[in-house]
Amino acid sequence: GIPTIDLDNDQDIQTIVDQQDGQYLGHVTTCLLEDGQQMIAVYPQGHGKGAIVMKKSDDGGKNWSSRLPTPRSWATSREVPTIHKVTDAAGKERLIMFSGLHPARMAVSEDDGKTWSELNRLGDWGGIVVMGDLIALNTGKGHYMALFHDDMRYFEADGAVQYENDRLEF
């Protein structure tokens, strides 16, 4: 069988990234930057949905910053965010962060997470935990395969669960 490793009692290797009384914080996604020490973490302020929180570590995840400022539209996230480092065909590096359900949206940083765009609609489709996996392909620089799943509740607009106050006006 597959060996089981239980790290529950190994507290010297555990770090609390964030906590808030009476609030579930989880579903964290991290991105390790090129220096091997800086990490960015994003997670919803809620169970699988809620405003996106962002924090940064400069020491490989041992210590974390306070919550960092985020664009206003990040407060409208309805699903777990996912974050990835990508390089386009011209060699430009970016961080991209996705937020799911319908419509799927994406924010971009071109300065290793110091500044970010608003969440922008990707098209007329959605899904659950969109782009939970992003794989660099061997077909050329800047080519990626991104994967997500959906149970057909969010892929099309008319199948989507409707939420109140899901948009901010600018």
Give structural attributes:
3-stranded antiparallel sheet, single chain, 170 residues, 0% helix, mainly beta
Give a verbal description of the structure.
The chain has strands at residues 29-32, 39-44, 52-57, 82-87, 93-99, 105-109, 120-121, 128-136, 144-149. The protein has 170 residues and is mainly beta. The strands form three sheets. It has a four-stranded antiparallel beta sheet with strand order 4-5-6-7, with no helix packed on it. A three-stranded antiparallel beta sheet has the order 1-2-3, with no helix packed on it. Strands 8-9 form a two-stranded antiparallel sheet. It is globular and about 45 Å long. The model is unreliable at 160-170 (pLDDT under 50).
Q: In a nutshell, what does this entry contain?
A:
The chain is mainly β.
